[in-house]
Task: inverse folding
């Protein structure tokens, strides 16, 4: 994840569940013992990290340092993440998380390449989206993706998020370019019907 931001006033006391269960998945809080799985499943893979804001990790030490920073950020209260695991196996195969700011929650995720096209990102995303929209302060859950990231766009659409527009030169994806790239922005608004 690594979507660090300071928490908004309305979310400073958010308590997130230790785990979220879906039909096939268990989303659980990250722990340092996940380093090897994170490194092997997605953090070292140039294809899995292609559209992320960080470059592939070169060693498990990189992953450990990254995870330690992430856990510090989460302890400060502005961000929450859950490792994506299958219910029958505790190994981390991806991560999904969110950042709280005022009345809005931003969503992000990454999944190991060997687990793509199985609906895991959508299934985990539904659980986190439902949890975030149920928080009293939440009025909006939103996410962005690079204009070329077709798979991520499809996940957001399956989550009932609506594409609101194009953010020009919004985000640097160092695996593609040193220059900021255009991104689409999607959202789900509380009490608005989900798009199908």
Result:
């Amino acid at each position: 994840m690594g979507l660090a931001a300071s928490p908004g006033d309305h979310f400073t006391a958010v308590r997130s569940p230790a785990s979220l269960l879906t039909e096939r998945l268990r989303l659980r809080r990250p722990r340092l013992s996940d380093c090897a799985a994170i490194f092997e499943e997605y953090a070292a893979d140039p294809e899995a990290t292609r559209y992320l804001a960080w470059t592939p990790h070169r060693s498990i030490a990189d992953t450990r340092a990254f995870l330690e920073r992430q856990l510090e950020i989460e302890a400060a209260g502005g961000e929450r993440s859950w490792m994506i695991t299958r219910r029958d196996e505790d190994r981390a195969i991806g991560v999904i998380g969110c950042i709280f700011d005022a009345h809005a929650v931003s969503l992000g995720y990454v999944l190991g390449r060997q687990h793509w096209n199985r609906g895991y990102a959508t299934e985990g995303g539904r659980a986190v989206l439902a949890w975030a929209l149920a928080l009293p302060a939440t009025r909006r859950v939103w996410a962005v993706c690079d204009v070329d990231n077709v798979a991520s766009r499809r996940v957001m659409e399956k989550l009932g998020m609506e594409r609101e527009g194009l953010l020009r030169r919004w985000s640097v994806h160092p695996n593609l370019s040193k220059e900021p790239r255009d991104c689409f922005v999607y959202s789900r608004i509380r009490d608005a019907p989900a798009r199908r």
Notes: Helices lie at 35-43, 60-76, 120-134, 150-158. Residues 73 and 79 are 7 Å apart (CA to CA).
